[in-house]
Fold CarD family transcriptional regulator.
Amino acid sequence: MAAKALSFDVGDYVVYPKHGVGRVIELQRQEIAGMQLELYVLRFEKERMTLRVPTNKAESVGMRKLSSDKTLREALETLTGKPRVKRTMWSRRAQEYEAKINSGDLVSIAEVVRDLFRADDQPEQSYSERQIFEGATSRLARELAAMEQVDEPTAQEKILEILRKAAAIHNKDKAPV
């Protein structure tokens, strides 16, 4: 067997693509189906969920350390871009958004947040758009909060502030002269 490429220590924050930011709370050894397994025990506070991931499967499920500062800057820069709204059916767009969120890639999550953000002067979002927007924003905010060592509401406010400033700039471009 190959040597462990990924290794996380107790106390490390990690990103599990389907659930977002969690913390390694312990390393366990368990016998399952007659085999000895080493497991990472992850705790996701927001969902009040504990997840056990075999150490040899961590990489294949996409578990990773928090993003680098460069990736975080790139994600925050993505938020300032012009929203891209595709004219495809909502069900298809919703699937694409969910796939981006569940990829665990910070920049892809930022794209979803940017594309679904509505400023106060813009038309109302549908319920499902708002649900996906809030899920993506929360996922982005949790990683930002863990990296900047702030709480999630503070990180979320920072994201919304970036989005509001960007929307003001982009809406000014559309205003009739």
